[in-house]
Prior knowledge:
By secondary structure, the chain is α+β, with helices and mostly antiparallel strands.
Amino acid sequence: xxxxxxxFLLVSIVVIILIIISLFYLVEFLYPKFSYRSSYSNNSYSxxxxxxxxxxxxxINTVRFASTTVSISLVSTPGELEQGLxxxxxxxxxxxxxxxxxTPDFYEFWMKDMKFPIDIIWIGExxxxxxxxxxxxxxxYPKLFKPKEKSLYVLEVNAGFARAHNIHIGDSVIFAIx
Length: 178
């Protein structure tokens, strides 16, 4: 009987492990990448590209362009990434939201559940603006906005901000603590 109990216990443990592994792969299959508001479409954000070492960015509260400073909100959790700016009524004139990724990629954004238009500014790992989508409106959903070059950071600001402050592709960006 002891041999049977040991075999039963071993088989039970193996079955439990297989169930856990199967559940993990099922979740990965059903939700391979998260779709985020104003955020990322299905090929933009995954558990493998979560904001990396977010602690290093946690104190950053401004993004500076040549003569313009934007006070930012950083997103750090999957829930915050999903929420993005959706549900907000507006942003202040010099406010924005900064998304930080682990690796450069072609992160796509959409305007799902947005209440106001925005400019989307993609920033490369060299801290230069790689692309800008201007005046993207909530009624454009489900259209996806994708940069022409890979980016590591994405800044969302009020529509018209990039034009009003003369922000262009190739401009340098500084992350700062104020």
